[in-house]
Write a structure and sequence with these properties.
The chain is α/β, with parallel strands linked by helices. About 40% of the residues lie in helices and about 15% in strands.
């Protein structure tokens, strides 16, 4: 039966959101489930986080902690643990009562921040390719996104171009480092120049640092809030999902100056109000894990990165080895199968039983990333080896 159009004839979905349908991650994961392919598309691990942390969640449920509405800003134990984490790893001092806000993952933190800080007509400069929720949240706020495109092979930001993009309408810089999907990590020199521009033009900054502990080799994560003039203008977002392999718990946070966090909390309370009560106590325990956990987790992901990168190169891809995150970006052109990454990814499950994500969906201009494809390496090593073996069939 064909559904009837709305009586007014006006589209049900607001025009500013007409370009956004089902996320590419949901589409590709559904394709993996339908075909039985190995899912290297969506960025979630195929093993669960530390048993000690999972048991802390079970214990909280049994003890009745968090089963009813937790406090709006988050349970005190978690807010204190987040403040301690920021001091321990980054030297950032925070008041857990006024400068820390717990959210339903980093996705809600981004949405609440942008809805709170933007008005129609404001411009937001963001690295392109974007994580897909950035574009949608900017649109929901009625603002305009302005891309600073990162180009292969290094995906370094052109800071002269950034300066040229700033106009009187620029309200906010939306930054992501370590960067999804390219794996680029800002250098101290790059971060310092970005900070200088933000201060010079009196811009707000929202920085997505969910991969802060997944930085490899000689790269170092530099939180923007630690640089001169940035603490009072920066909302820092992070999450437990990536660091502790517990993406389904959806526990994230925003930290920053009290006035900025209050603005974000004002919006957040009307989105989810609160969430994940028992998990908040468990994440507090996770954040207090010793350095050996963080070091071991990072080293495990580095080995997996190298396994997949080397395998992709052997299979004929041009590989851009990431400095951080869960992901590796590659170029399919050398395979001789065309340069359309979207068509390639749609055919890949039937062709060799692997799912990946086309980078074109992360660009305003799909041609900019047309031949690029993203693979996730946050999987078991045996799964990655099997995927690499299947991908090598493409060369034959």
């Amino acid at each position: 039966m064909t559904p009837k159009p709305p009586p007014s004839g006006r589209p049900l979905l607001a025009p500013r959101l007409a370009a956004f349908g089902t996320t590419v991650f949901a589409e590709m994961s559904a394709l993996a489930a339908r075909t039985g392919a190995i899912n290297l598309g969506q960025g979630f691990p195929d093993t669960d986080g530390p048993e000690k942390v999972r048991e802390a969640a079970v214990r909280a449920i049994r003890e009745g902690r968090g089963n009813q509405y937790p406090p709006g800003p988050g349970v005190p134990e978690l807010r204190e643990a987040i403040a301690t984490h920021q001091r321990r790893f980054h030297g950032i001092e925070l008041d857990p009562d006024s400068e820390v806000l717990v959210t339903a993952g980093a996705t809600e933190a981004i949405a609440a921040s942008l809805l709170a800080l933007l008005e129609p007509g404001d411009e937001v400069i963001a690295f392109e390719p974007y994580y897909d929720s950035y574009a949608a949240c900017i649109a929901m706020a009625g603002a305009t996104r302005v891309p600073l495109t990162l180009h292969a092979p290094g995906f370094r930001p052109d800071l002269d171009r950034l300066a040229a993009l700033i106009t009187p309408r620029t309200r906010l810089l939306l930054l992501n480092s370590p960067h999804n999907p390219t794996g680029m990590v800002l250098t101290r020199e790059e971060a310092t120049e970005i900070a200088r521009l933000a201060v010079a033009h009196d811009l707000l900054v929202v920085t997505d640092e969910v991969y802060e502990h997944l930085v490899f080799d000689d790269s170092t994560h530099i939180p923007l809030a630690t640089l001169p003039g940035m603490r009072e203008r920066t909302a820092t977002i992070s999450s437990s999902g990536k660091t502790f392999s517990l993406t389904g718990w959806k526990v994230g946070w925003v930290t920053g100056p009290a006035a900025l966090v209050t603005a974000v909390r004002t919006v957040k309370q009307y989105l989810t109000f609160v969430s994940a009560g028992p998990f908040q106590y468990a994440v507090a325990a996770a954040l207090n894990l010793p350095d050996t956990y963080y070091d071991g987790f990072r080293e495990d992901l580095r080995r997996k990165r190298d396994l997949l990168c080397d395998g992709l190169a052997d299979a004929g891809f041009e590989v851009f080895r990431p400095q951080g995150t869960y992901f590796v970006t590659s170029d399919i052109t050398p395979l001789g199968l065309g340069a359309d990454g979207t068509a390639f990814c749609l055919a890949l499950p039937e062709r060799c039983g692997v799912v990946a994500v086309p980078d074109a969906v992360f660009y305003d201009d799909p041609e900019a990333g047309r031949s690029l494809v993203r693979f996730a390496f946050c999987k078991r090593e045996d799964v990655l080896r099997e995927a690499v073996g299947r991908l090598k069939r493409l060369a034959h």
